[in-house]
Write a structure and sequence with these properties.
Elements: H1 4-11, H2 18-32, E1 35-40, E2 64-71, E3 77-85, E4 88-95, E5 103-109, H3 110-113
Antiparallel strand pairs: 1-2, 2-3, 3-4, 4-5
Helix pairs in contact: 1-2
Length: about 120
């Protein structure tokens, strides 16, 4: 993946809110750390395809974003869920390679971090 600006430019027509911009950034972080995107939703589907691009309809639900990933060596799978809450998002990442299924989570206030840069590609 060449960089966030390239990904953001390819996803820009579909980005319509700060939540979309944050999920686009999260996708870039996962991909630049050795993963391919597989698709949307909790379960594998017939249209799954390993790619560095965001899958079709990745942002069809503005309240809940669900993206699946697989490491380039195939050893790990990730499930990323981002839930919109008031003026922020709760983000969970489940790792399916380990027995305990560790969860990484965080909370982001969109008004503080993304509203000023939303729609301004050079600032992002």
């Amino acid at each position: 993946m060449a960089g966030l600006e390239v990904l953001f430019s390819s996803a820009a027509p579909a980005i319509s809110c700060p939540q979309d911009a944050l999920v686009c950034f999260l996708h870039w972080e996962v991909v630049t750390n050795g993963y391919y995107g597989l698709g949307t939703g909790d379960q594998p589907g017939p249209s799954d395809k390993k790619s560095e691009l965001l899958p079709a309809s990745w942002n069809s639900n503005k309240e809940l974003y669900v993206l699946r990933y697989e490491s380039k060596d195939g050893a790990k799978k990730l499930l990323l869920k981002a839930v919109s809450v008031e003026n922020g998002m709760i983000i969970n990442v489940l790792v399916s390679s380990s027995p305990g299924l560790p969860t990484v989570w965080g909370e982001m206030h969109l008004e503080t971090h993304f509203s000023s840069a939303f729609g301004n590609v050079p600032k992002v």
